[in-house]
Amino acid sequence: MKVAVTGGAGYIGAFTVRALLEAGHEVRVLDDLSTGHREALAGLPLRFEQLDLCRDPLEPALDGVQAVVHFAGKALVPESVREPALYYRVNAVGSLRLLEAMHRVGARAIVFSSTCATYGVPDAVPIAEDHPQRPVTAYGSSKLSVEHMLRDVAHAWGFGAVALRYFNAAGAAADGSLGEDHDPETHLIPRILEAARTGTAVQIFGTDLPTRDGTCVRDYIHVDDLARAHRLALERAGDEGLGRFEAFNLGTGRGSTVREVIAAAREATGREIVAQPAPPRPGDPPALVADARRARERLGFEPEHDLDAIVRSAWAWHRSHPAGYASDNGAVGARAKAVGECERGG
Ligand code: UDP
């Protein structure tokens, strides 16, 4: 298929672009490079269009395209709590413009980056796809609004639309060529590994929560596994999925606490990692774990990597790329401010 990937220069986007190319699809990447990295696509046989989904004409970039994998968007829970309008504009308005342009050019299959944040604080875990969606942040609400658009256009315009609700994406490529590079970085695994590398402390947000050791439980899934799931979802959307909206959780079905992730990182790095208790982050549910059965049954998707493999691959990337992709240009150590806040897809 001829596939456009919005946000294809981002973390999960770049892994998915590779998976699509390897499967023989023709790929065009649409990215404004606000958080993505052109280097992540270096040397790949694809067409790249730098554009803003909220402002630029989209039809020329989508001309001839049959299907879209839509990653482009804002994805930070704390930022969305502070700046909700930004989240509705980029995520909801950008997606609406994309759908209208797809309709005009005749592209009818779409796979959308959604999130377990659309469930809000779940009644219980694991969370199945039919669990009520009651998001508690503008991030979750803006993503849910796009799911609603997709359901409606699937019925009205005959689109095949799949929403993939990610749990926690993590890890890096086995060959060391791709990894997580957010600036500043907010995500747990890179922050733990930065603490391991530099000897600084990592904060644990919430230590008195109703979980097995008092810290947040999350379902970490390797980004290579996620990329494969996108390919499977796309092929389904463009074939038997036309005229239908479907949602899939993408997780492993196994949760790990923050303390368990730190223990896995101590094992993978062989380093003492100092952890410091800190207050919980606003908008963070205590536990989010996927019921992963629907993706297994309908997509034939089974994650291959466990937490140890995720942390090991992330450590190999982190050590060789302490300044992210800029490390490949001799900028090792340039990014001293490795902690803070940033963008993600999950
Ligand atoms: N977390 C933490 N310390 C950090 C970063 C994250 O304790 O420095 C916790 C966070 O509260 C959450 C989990 O780790 O429970 C995963 O956070 P992340 O930002 O990686 O992903 P999220 O679950 O927010 O999508």
Question: How does this structure look, described?
Answer:
With 346 residues, the chain is of the alpha/beta class. The protein has a single domain (2-328), classed as NAD(P)-binding Rossmann-like Domain (Rossmann fold, 3-Layer(aba) Sandwich), CATH 3.40.50.720. It is 36% helix and 18% strand. The chain is built from ten helices and 14 strands. The protein has helices spanning 11-22, 59-62, 77-82, 84-105, 138-157, 188-198, 223-237, 258-269, 293-299, 307-320; strands at 2-6, 26-31, 47-50, 67-70, 109-115, 160-166, 168-170, 201-205, 217-218, 220-222, 245-250, 256-257, 274-278, 287-288. A seven-stranded parallel β-sheet has the order 3-2-1-4-5-6-11, sandwiched between helices. Helix 1 (11-22) links the parallel strand 1 (2-6) and strand 2 (26-31). Helix 6 (188-198) packs across helix 10. The longest helix is centred in the first third of the chain and has 22 residues, at 84-105. The protein is globular. The two termini are 26 Å apart. The structure holds uridine-5'-diphosphate. Uridine-5'-diphosphate (UDP) binds next to helix 6 and strand 8.
